[in-house]
Specification:
By secondary structure, the chain is an alpha/beta fold. It has helices at 21-30, 51-61, 68-76, 92-102, 122-125, 168-179, 192-199, 247-257, 306-309, 320-329, 349-355, and strands at 14-16, 36-41, 44-50, 85-87, 106-110, 116-121, 137-141, 162-163, 166-167, 183-188, 208-213, 234-238, 241-243, 261-271, 275-280, 283-289, 292-304, 334-339, 343-345. The strands form 6 sheets. Strands 11-10-7-12-17-14-18 form a 7-stranded mixed sheet, sandwiched between helices. Strands 1-2-3 form a 3-stranded mixed sheet.
Length: 361
């Protein structure tokens, strides 16, 4: 079929069973919309690792050092241990049915012997594939004083500081538009006119922007109470976040999980520069030299469902983590979406300087 001609060589999607997870991630990121890697051993195809497989591995191992084969073993324990495939002889309508019936992001096309020939995405079989991000609004938290960034923020809101020549807030708004979001709220407090004058009604970014002005600081969640429309799921992102997170996939995950709250989490390593003593009471069992602990941390990016927004009261100030804890205490469905994409919290001048030499495309 003609659309096979547009597929890049499948060779560039290959990793070996002994390759580390970081190599799998690099391959997936380089694959673009295909978002997958093919695992081989001795030139024989073993399995397909997708974006979702990698995120589940991050939850399981909290490490980039595990091998591709370990991730495959974990995948084989799941409900979909082997990839959904289609024969090269399949018709376009058959391809579409497979995508729809199995809720796929990518489809492995094989020859008659089962060898991989190509990876197809929804874009390959539908001119306008479903975009989950079109179903949500977004709220960018941009009202903080940026105290830790002074003197850079003496006369400018922190989200308006340029990163690689573009205001950070403009980068975020552009990413939201690219994901398919058409309505964006921006919360303001400190020097709001600089933000309003720059973005206006949002038309030049091909979306609608509405401002939620905090007359006094309301915390990281308080501006949610200013929303007039609480009937739509809303993507919330801090205005000092610099990332290339796949926002469309994040929103899709939220809907597929039927979550009340979804939290994007990022892998964070903490190294202890000393030998750590393990013991029972006074008896020493071991000394571990300079260990590294691994955590999945809150990235400051969330999707909230209307079921959560309806619980908001008229509190003047609260943090969004408090809302998350309340939802958990009510037995709400709160899920994490582990990121392998790059992420920076530009809260201090040191991080701001580092961001100037990083390009997220």
């Amino acid at each position: 079929m003609d659309f096979f001609n547009a597929r890049d060589s499948i060779q560039r999607l290959q990793v070996q069973v002994d390759d580390k997870l970081v190599k799998v991630i690099d391959t997936i990121q380089a694959s673009g919309s295909m978002a997958c890697a093919l695992v081989y051993k001795n030139h024989e195809f073993v399995n397909l690792l997708t974006d979702g497989d990698v995120r589940r591995a991050l939850i399981e191992y909290k490490s980039l050092d595990v091998s591709a084969m370990e991730v495959v073993k974990q995948k084989l324990k799941s409900d979909r241990g082997l990839p959904i495939t289609a024969s090269i002889d399949s018709s376009l309508s058959e391809m579409r049915s497979i995508f729809k019936n199995h809720n796929l992001r990518q489809l492995l096309v094989t020859d008659k012997e089962g060898n991989p020939l190509a990876i197809l995405t929804q874009q390959d079989v539908w001119a306008t594939p479903k975009k989950y991000a079109t179903l949500v609004h977004a709220l960018v938290m941009a009202g903080g004083f940026g105290t830790r960034m002074r003197p850079l923020t003496n006369n400018m809101p922190k989200p308006m500081l340029p990163v690689n020549g573009v205001p950070l807030l403009e980068t975020i708004v552009t990413q939201l538009a690219s994901a398919g979001i058409v309505k964006v709220y921006i919360s303001t407090h400190y020097l709001p006119n600089m933000i309003v004058n720059h973005f206006g009604n949002g038309s030049r970014f091909n979306l609608e922007i509405e401002y939620l002005h905090e007359t006094e600081p309301m915390g990281t969640g308080g501006s949610l109470t200013l929303l007039k429309d609480k009937s739509t799921d809303i993507l919330v992102i801090n205005g000092d976040i610099y990332t290339n997170l796949d926002l469309e996939h994040f929103c899709g995950y939220h809907f597929q999980k039927q979550a009340d709250i979804s939290i994007a989490t990022s892998l964070h390593l903490v190294s202890i520069p000393f030998g750590v003593v393990e013991s029972i009471g006074a008896k020493v069992l071991d000394i571990i030299e300079k260990p590294t602990s691994r955590f999945l941390i809150n990235s400051g990016i969330y999707v909230l469902s209307p079921s959560v927004l309806m619980y908001l009261n008229e509190m003047k100030q609260f943090d969004i983590t408090e809302l998350i804890k309340q939802t958990i205490n009510r037995d709400g469905a709160v899920y994490q979406f582990p990121m392998y994409e790059r992420w920076m919290d530009i809260g201090q001048i040191e991080q701001y300087r580092k961001a100037q030499i990083v390009t997220y495309e």
